[in-house]
């Protein structure tokens, strides 16, 4: 029986929240791992924190680029599951694992020998070496991290967000315990500093992959998900690779904007870089709410498209966009009202440079309060466009907004005009605003023709 053509506002809201809330919670739990790394390293040493910011930024850029292939698995697995085609489902998952594993191996040397690259990009030699020390351990975690993303996409496609949440909560708890032990040398562990944070990340990534794979097998009783995993299927391989490359490049464009801002901040100074890293962690935590809603929007838009329900598509899109913008407005108020309280969580109360870092961070969060709305608008548009199977145009919009406009403007305002950190973040604001306008316009125009 086909679904109803006219879904009420309450029906849309229930569907969005039943899928979106577990995904939001799992994303927040996953984000908390990076926040714990940053917070504990800030307690350990400010210079080590700045080096970790550089290393983790490089890791995250490469991870998001590779994760595009895992995200491509999601709609393909969902379609196969809907059709009851377990063989195709298994092939899509297998080829997603193949591509993700190959991608991890491809980017590994860049992480292992990143110090010369970072120095060439204008970073201080000491910070570049700290980042390299971090990535020579944590970099190997790229393999299980990307494989875990494939398993996560499979579970979400099978509408098992609670399984994803359970695994992520377990991993977050393990990450906090391992960081506490290995960074500071508690519970009989050696005091390893930044290398301890790297080892903790590597162990947790391996744990997540094993747990996600086990949950995926449980979600598919009677299906030998990993049977003949060594056998290629080049047709499916090509489909996953094409879609994943477009999604990955779009994510890379946005992430690259923030990564470039990190490099620019590194040229301004160590304290500015440390404050920037803390501020990014704060806003990224709130941003996970929008990412979870965006994932829910993708699913809801895809279902509306499948049944040819233009009114339902646009009504659901307006509702999920309203939820996201309402939360963004609340976060903006918090950032304006209590910036020092948030930044202070990441610093040792006895840190001699605490006051200077708080002052720099306060200015950054002031600007961040204003780009909350445009950042929410662009990520919601991106999720909705993926739902209606439009992934090529957003890739070009992201490249234009972030790399033709955002990065050059951040460079000019931060270094050329001498505005420092706030100038860098104003460039981010303009780039995100342009992306929001172009992508929102694209979606509403396209949805009017469905």
Explain this structure:
By secondary structure, the chain is mainly α. The protein has one domain. 84% of the residues lie in helices and 0% in strands. The protein contains 15 helices and no strands. It has helices spanning 9-44, 46-83, 86-112, 115-120, 125-138, 142-157, 161-184, 194-219, 234-268, 270-306, 310-337, 339-344, 354-387, 392-416, 420-447. Helix 11 packs antiparallel against helix 13 (354-387). The radius of gyration is 21 Å and the shape is globular.
Question: Notable features of this structure?
Answer:
450 residues; mainly alpha; 84% helix; 0% strand
Give a quick summary of the entry.
The protein has helices at 9-44, 46-83, 86-112, 115-120, 125-138, 142-157, 161-184, 194-219, 234-268, 270-306, 310-337, 339-344, 354-387, 392-416, 420-447. It has 450 residues and is an all-alpha fold.
Number of domains: 1
Note the total helix count: 15
The 3D shape can be described as globular
Biggest sheet features: none
What's the N-to-C terminus distance?
22 Å
Oligomer: single chain
Instruction: Give the mean pLDDT.
Output: 86
Which regions are unreliable across 5 or more consecutive residues at pLDDT < 50?
A: none
Q: What fraction of the residues are assigned to beta strands by DSSP?
A: under 5%
Gyration radius, to the nearest Å? 21 Å
């Amino acid at each position: 029986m086909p679904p109803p053509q006219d879904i009420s506002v309450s029906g849309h809201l229930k569907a969005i929240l039943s899928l979106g809330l577990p995904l939001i919670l799992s994303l927040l739990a996953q984000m908390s791992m990076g926040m714990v790394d940053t917070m504990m390293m800030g307690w350990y040493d400010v210079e080590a924190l700045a080096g970790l910011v550089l290393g983790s930024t490089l890791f995250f850029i490469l991870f998001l680029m590779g994760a595009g292939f895992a995200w491509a698995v999601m709609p393909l697995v969902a379609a196969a599951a809907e059709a009851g085609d377990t063989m195709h489902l298994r092939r899509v998952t297998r080829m997603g694992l193949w591509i993700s594993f190959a991608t991890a191996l491809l980017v590994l040397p860049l992480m292992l020998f990143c110090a010369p690259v970072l120095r060439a990009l204008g970073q201080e030699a000491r910070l570049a070496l700290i980042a390299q020390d971090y990535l020579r351990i944590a970099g190997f975690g790229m393999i299980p991290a990307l494989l875990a993303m494939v398993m996560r996409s499979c579970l979400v496609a099978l509408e098992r967000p609670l399984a994803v949440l359970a695994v992520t909560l377990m991993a977050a708890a393990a990450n906090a315990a391992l960081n506490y032990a290995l960074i500071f040398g508690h519970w009989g562990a050696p005091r390893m500093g930044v290398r301890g944070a790297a080892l903790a990340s590597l162990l947790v990534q391996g744990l997540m992959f094993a747990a996600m794979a086990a949950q995926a097998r449980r979600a598919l009783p009677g299906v030998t998900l990993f049977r003949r995993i060594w056998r290629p299927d080049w047709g499916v391989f090509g489909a996953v690779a094409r879609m994943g490359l477009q999604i990955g490049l779009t994510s890379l464009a946005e992430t690259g904007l923030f990564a470039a801002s990190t490099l620019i901040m590194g040229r301004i100074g160590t304290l500015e870089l440390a404050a920037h890293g803390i501020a990014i962690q704060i806003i990224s935590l709130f941003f996970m709410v929008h990412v979870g809603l965006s994932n829910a929007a993708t699913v809801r838009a895809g279902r509306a498209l499948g049944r040819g329900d233009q009114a339902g598509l646009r009504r659901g899109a307006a509702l999920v966009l309203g939820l996201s913008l309402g939360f963004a407005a609340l976060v903006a108020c918090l950032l304006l009202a209590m910036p020092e309280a948030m930044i202070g969580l990441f610093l040792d109360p006895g840190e001699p440079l605490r006051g200077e870092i708080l002052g720099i961070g306060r200015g950054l969060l002031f600007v961040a309060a204003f780009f909350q709305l445009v950042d929410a608008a662009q990520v919601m548009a991106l999720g909705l466009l993926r739902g209606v199977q439009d992934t090529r145009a957003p890739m070009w919009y992201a490249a234009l907004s972030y790399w033709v406009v955002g990065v050059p403007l951040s460079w000019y305002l931060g270094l050329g005009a001498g505005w420092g950190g706030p100038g860098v973040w104003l460039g981010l604001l303009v780039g995100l605003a342009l992306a929001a306008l172009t992508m929102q316009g694209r979606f509403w125009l396209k949805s009017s023709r469905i």
